[in-house]
Design brief:
The chain is an alpha/beta fold. The chain folds into two domains: about 170 residues, Bordetella uptake gene, domain 1 (D-Maltodextrin-Binding Protein, domain 2, 3-Layer(aba) Sandwich); about 120 residues, Periplasmic binding protein-like II (D-Maltodextrin-Binding Protein, domain 2, 3-Layer(aba) Sandwich), CATH 3.40.190. The chain contains twelve helices and ten strands. Strands 1, 2, 3, 4, 5, 6, 7, 8, 9 and 10 form a ten-stranded mixed β-sheet that branches. Helix 3 links the parallel strand 1 and strand 2. Helix 3 packs across helix 10 and helix 5 packs across helix 12. The longest helix is centred in the last third of the chain and has 22 residues.
Length: about 350
């Protein structure tokens, strides 16, 4: 460090006194450096005073990325500071989640992700963070079904076709998903368990690569997010065989639920905004207030619905309780499926 000049105290003429004062100043400075920038209640009230990054743990072009950009725009306008989307793909969403978990809890790093976050809590044997203690659930902002999609040239038009073809072909069929541990991965595993057919999982790093693989004829089928698939469905480049929710989606009313063939089948993807563990309650409340205003805007609701997402909002204790219950729910599904990821 460069040397620092300290003013001579009035009346402190001895070298010993000067050395004592210098050592005390250095010690105080060391404590400040070691403590680092911690968000105090006063800081939280002033927040934000600089740009915010919104981590999304999947590549650009997918449903998570679309929603992150939609809400980043709204929060930028409401908070008066830029909110930039930072795509950090990898390990089924764990790379971005770990970055978020290890960031200071000062409100300047947020994350918008899917329920892959709660799935990964039990799917992965080792994580660099705890989904319960190192992540703060702020708000549930949207939900959507997954779709079972195929290339139009693939002769699969119903769930019964899928089952019949898988039983007819040695080794069954393959299916792509947005990555190990994602909702799409478990949706395929649940179909395998429900039907007794052979299915081979092919993981990709996000929705956009899955869509590209489908369009390129590399897969028999894929379970992916409706927001990422629907533009290609409307353009005739993909066909939706079924949806994973118990009822059909308003965005695709002609696509039947898998539950119509296998009662009880249900996988729903949801999207939430999170912060590092220990995010101050004042910042959580400010975000909840602004997200509530955004959800009330017809432009926001319309944008979400056009992309096949349902605008829903849970905040505070209600979302925290839901988040914990989802961790428990998917722990049971993961155990039943035998799915594992490293």
């Amino acid at each position: 460090m460069p040397s620092r000049e300290y003013p001579r105290p009035i009346g402190a003429t001895s070298p010993q006194v000067r050395r004592s004062l210098i050592m005390r100043s250095v010690a105080a400075a060391s404590v400040f450096v070691l403590a680092g920038p911690v968000a105090t209640p006063a800081d939280a009230q002033a927040w934000p005073v600089r740009p915010i990054r919104m981590v999304t743990p999947f590549p650009p072009g997918g449903g998570t990325d679309f929603l992150a950009r939609q809400f980043a725009t709204q929060l930028s306008d409401a908070l008066g500071q830029p909110v930039t989307v930072d795509n950090r793909a990898g390990a089924g969403g764990n790379v971005g989640a770990e970055i978020t978990a290890k960031s200071p809890p000062d409100g300047y790093t947020l994350m918008l992700t899917s329920n892959s976050l709660v799935i990964n809590a039990s799917l992965y044997q080792k994580l660099g963070y705890s989904a319960l203690t190192d992540i703060t659930p702020v708000a549930l902002v949207a939900s959507a079904p997954l779709v079972l999609a195929v290339h139009p040239s693939v002769p699969l038009t119903s769930v019964k076709d899928v089952v019949a073809q898988a039983r007819k072909r040695r080794g069954g069929l393959n299916f792509g998903s947005n990555g190990n541990g994602t909702s799409g991965h478990l949706a395929g595993e649940l179909l395998r368990i429900s039907s007794g057919i052979e299915l081979t999982h092919v993981p990709y790093k996000g929705a956009a690569p899955v869509i590209a693989a489908l369009l390129g004829g590399e897969l028999d089928m894929a379970f992916t997010t409706l927001p990422s698939a629907i533009p290609h469905v409307r353009a005739g480049r993909l066909r939706v065989v079924a949806v994973t929710t118990p009822k059909s989606s308003p965005a695709l009313p002609d696509a039947p639920p898998i539950a119509a063939t296998f009662p009880g089948y249900s996988i729903e993807i949801w999207y939430g905004i999170f912060g590092p563990g220990g995010l101050p309650s004042a910042i959580q409340e400010r975000l909840a207030t602004e997200l509530r205003k955004a959800h009330a805007l017809p432009s926001v609701r319309g944008a979400l619905e056009r992309e096949g997402a349902l605008p829903v909002l849970l905040t505070g204790a209600e979302f925290s309780g839901f988040y914990r219950s989802e961790i428990d729910k998917y722990a049971k599904i993961v155990k039943a499926s035998g799915a594992r990821a490293e």
